[in-house]
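Technical annex B. To support the medicinal chemistry partners, we prepared a structural model of the target in complex with nicotinamide-adenine-dinucleotide, based solely on the information shown next.
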Amino acid sequence: MSRIAFIGVGNMGAGMAASQARSQNAVTAFDLSAEALGRAAEAGCATAGSVAEAVKDAEVVITMLPAGQHVRSVYAEQVLPNVPVSALLIDCSTIDVDSARAVAAQAAARGMRFADAPVSGGIMAAEGGTLAFMVGCDADVFPQVKAALEPMAKAVIHAGAAGAGQAAKICNNMLLGISMLGTCEALALAEKLGLDPDRFFEVAGQSSGQCWSLTAYSPWPGQVPAAPSNRDYQGGFLTSLMLKDLKLAQEAAAKSGAATPMGAQAEALYALFDGLGYGGRDFSAVLQLMRGKLDALVLTNQ
Ligand code: NAD
């Protein structure tokens, strides 16, 4: 049993903290939202009135916060000044690589162990304890990080040193965004050419155009039963979150000097789709933009 401080028990953190509590760990949660904290209490977590109180005798600190600025300020102002030096610090938020490296450096300056460990998988995987973690930390710290994440994980992969987890996450999601847009374009063109979309699915699924976005998550309703396209694009991976990750990829590309023209196009297209009011739909709903059939979707975030 470990004493875990869990900071940020929103959509993702709630399920993750619950998984830790189910594994007989003593979880103390803190969130700025009283409602979120109440849900954590129902899931078997103790609650604290501040970050400082939550971390004061923690063996492991896990954070699941919205963005880089939250992670930087929570660690610099509240976690690091109050947590025992022996604690293992793990940030699971999706943030920019520079913020992850900055927090890792601050922790190292105090002689502390820190890992960036963003996740793949959504709210259902968080609740089920089946997330995939990509971890950036020193090699000798990784086994301890893996052990701490295991109650929430189906896979824990060491991506490299500090910041490598975030780098892996944004590169993967940039590839996913681009491949989904390509899949949608191809399906829309097939339709215009008079091809039956289901025949195209069968052909491309067994040809060189095959990719996860088509064969595991088809945006065309009826082709992959579990895909959000069969549920009116509700749930799944929200357009607004894909846009966040594509923005992080573009920022990283600009800073590192990498050429990512397809990533830039993907960001622009998802920004357009989000701006039209579809940020609350699964990212595969962009098919209906490509088809010129936006009237098939009900606006959800306006
Ligand atoms: P969320 O907004 O539901 O949860 C974030 C929580 O952090 C909120 O409850 C908020 O009150 C809390 N918070 C903010 N500032 C705080 C502070 N200073 N102290 C304590 N609590 C604070 O977001 P989410 O969907 O749970 O996502 C969290 C992270 O996980 C994000 O970085 C997101 O990009 C990433 N992510 C989300 C998903 C998903 O499907 N939702 C999937 C993969 C990764």
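Notes passed to the chemistry partners:
The first strand starts at residue 3 and ends at 7.
The beta strands are 3-7, 26-30, 46-47, 60-63, 88-91, 113-116, 119-120, 131-136, 153-160.
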